[in-house]
Amino acid sequence: MIWRAILHFPQSLLHRFLARHADTSPTADFRLKSFMGRWYEQARLENPFEYGMDGVYSEYALIAPGQISVSNHGIAPGGKHSLARGQAFMPDSTVPGRLRVSFVPPYTWFSSPLHILYTDEGYREALVSGSGGHYLWLLTRERHPGSDSISHLLSEARRRGFDTSSLRYTHQP
Question: Theoretical Cys-Cys bridge with 171: which of 2, 54, 72, 156, CB 3.0 to 4.6 Å?
Fold first, then answer.
């Protein structure tokens, strides 16, 4: 894991440089309850904690008002199943699409921003990022969505200033 992070540090710097102009403002009409459930990752800006993973999906569940359990699943290179459990919370109820997430207890002092940039009306597709624009995930409710969903998410990412040519497409077995 350490070697992966070291080897991909230059790529990470490039992503940060290219993404600095991306619009990461959360969607204004986000409904937390509608977002709960399973989301399949279709593409992402590669990052050290998911490097080379396929079969990636996340599950979100409300555990208390404003408190969300998060389970991230994936298949690491070599075929080993990876699971990361954490918690997310909404730090400001006036900006519902802005969450903070942590996979390190205690959850509130070591957390990272997670912005829900876009969801369609039926909460079947979503675009999610960190606050700096160097993380990006294209998510769908279906493991194998139609090409229209992917095209729509790519358009939204480009409209917001993300370099979609750097995306790594996630193989969903």
Answer: 54
